[in-house]
Q: What sequence folds into this?
């Protein structure tokens, strides 16, 4: 503009060049271009190129491939047609042709304005490995409030999906109108004429919670971009990488705690779009959500199993014990982290009856507390004395000491057991059952089952009134004060 202004002032290219500080030829060129109708003075002059004669073929290949053909493949076709240029020239021509092709076919987006209480999007993401085992991250995104939920799982099965959906709905405090996910086999069985056929179990779960399950267009993740962004951010923060410097997880519980802390942090932070924390908008949106049923859908409880006569269920080729009272009834087994939760249906709804650490085939999980009538597990059970005659009943009626005496005496092979039992009954009649019961207990503990041992113990209790340390009648104990007396034996 200074050059043209100087030329209009002086009317001479030489004088204008002196005023503007440039060559007179430059002044003449700019003036001639202005007189010819303008144009960009900084635009370079288009020079003929070797590929100009082949540009129609380049555009034809780009059009036929819908902008996906590679430049090296185009170069091979052009060389076969006689092109003598380099691959660099071909790459530039193909890039320009692709840019022009996309300019006329660019996808436009209509801004989506969500309404409160309508849409909840969900998707899966790959989680970190724990102990060499792969995990998954169930991610959900409530559209209006931008509230995010991330739940770790071991797999992406139908039971895990419905369990995560139930946990998500209960965390947000209600059910929206629609659930939007991708076309996984757990949600969409197949497509018929482009129409998605829903999984019947997912449809049943939707009816249970009062929601309608929808899926996005196949191979079009942009139709549920909110949860796609949630998956991206969750993986970037929760999966250990060199970028986030997060350490490896020692257990599944650590991963679950990290996901819980991540959700609390990101939901309490103001969102860039709304300027308000999602947890605050969730409090408003809860007024538009539907009330959840008291009990979860049965598919969310896990896989159904029948309790056998041995009070166990078989899950993953491993037997797990259950409490008494559930034989021949249906229960549900579901993996929760490193544990197996067993749920049964009770009068007040579903209730968890047992929880075991996951095991491997050949290593059953049996809890002794589930078998109160079989104490000791696999160890030998002690005998339980049961009277079969009046004499036996009179002896056992003395008390627990009599029971212990009989068990210990029988185990050590004592002779004349019945005569000694009758003798104990006579002592109980004269001295009282409590006193004789105490003496029988001491005799059983000390291993004293001779004819006069019971009487000696009773005399000792009568004189001393209290017992001291028990001395077992075996070869390791002797009444001999020493061995000096044996030194004079035979002299």
A:
């Amino acid at each position: 503009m200074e050059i043209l202004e100087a030329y209009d002032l002086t009317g001479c290219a030489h004088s204008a060049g002196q005023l503007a500080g440039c060559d007179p030829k430059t002044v003449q060129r700019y003036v001639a271009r202005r007189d010819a109708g303008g144009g960009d003075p900084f635009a370079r002059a288009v020079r003929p190129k070797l590929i100009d004669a082949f540009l129609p073929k380049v555009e034809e290949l780009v059009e036929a491939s819908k902008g996906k053909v590679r430049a090296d493949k185009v170069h091979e076709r052009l060389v076969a047609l006689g092109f003598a240029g380099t691959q660099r020239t071909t790459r530039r021509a193909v890039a320009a042709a692709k840019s022009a092709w996309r300019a006329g076919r660019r996808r436009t987006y209509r801004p989506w304005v969500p309404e409160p209480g309508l849409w909840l999007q969900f998707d899966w993401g790959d989680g970190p490995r724990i102990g060499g085992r792969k995990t998954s991250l169930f991610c959900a995104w409530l559209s209006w409030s931008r509230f995010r939920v991330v739940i770790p799982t071991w797999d992406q099965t139908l039971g895990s999906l419905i369990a995560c959906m139930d946990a998500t709905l209960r965390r947000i405090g209600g059910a929206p109108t629609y659930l939007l996910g991708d076309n996984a086999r757990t949600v969409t069985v197949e497509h018929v004429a482009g129409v998605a056929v829903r999984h019947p179990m997912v449809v049943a779960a939707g009816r249970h919670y009062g929601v309608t399950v929808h899926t996005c267009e196949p191979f079009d993740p942009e139709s549920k971009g909110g949860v796609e962004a949630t998956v991206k951010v969750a993986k970037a923060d929760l999966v250990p990488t060199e970028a986030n410097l997060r350490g490896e997880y020692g257990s599944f519980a650590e991963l679950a705690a990290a996901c819980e802390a991540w959700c609390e942090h990101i939901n309490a932070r103001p969102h860039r779009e709304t300027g308000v924390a999602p947890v605050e908008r969730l409090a408003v949106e809860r007024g538009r959500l539907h009330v959840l049923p008291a009990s979860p859908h049965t598919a969310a409880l896990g896989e159904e199993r029948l309790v056998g006569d041995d009070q166990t269920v078989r899950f993953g080729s491993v037997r797990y014990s259950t409490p008494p009272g559930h034989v021949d009834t249906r229960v549900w087994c579901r993996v929760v982290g490193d544990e197996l939760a067993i749920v049964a249906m009770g009068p007040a709804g579903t209730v968890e009856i047992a929880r075991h650490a996951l095991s491997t085939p050949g290593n059953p999980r049996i809890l002794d507390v589930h078998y109160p009538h079989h104490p000791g597990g696999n160890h030998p059970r002690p005998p339980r004395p049961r009277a079969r005659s009046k004499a036996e009943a009179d002896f056992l009626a003395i008390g627990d000491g009599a029971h212990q005496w009989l068990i210990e005496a029988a185990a050590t092979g004592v002779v004349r057991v019945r005569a000694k039992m009758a003798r104990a009954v006579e002592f109980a009649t004269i001295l009282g059952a409590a006193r004789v019961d105490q003496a029988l207990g001491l005799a059983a503990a000390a291993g004293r089952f001779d004819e006069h041992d019971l009487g000696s113990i009773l005399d000792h209790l009568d004189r001393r009134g209290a017992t001291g340390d028990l001395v077992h009648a075996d070869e390791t104990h002797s009444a001999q004060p020493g061995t000096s007396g044996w030194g004079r034996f035979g002299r």
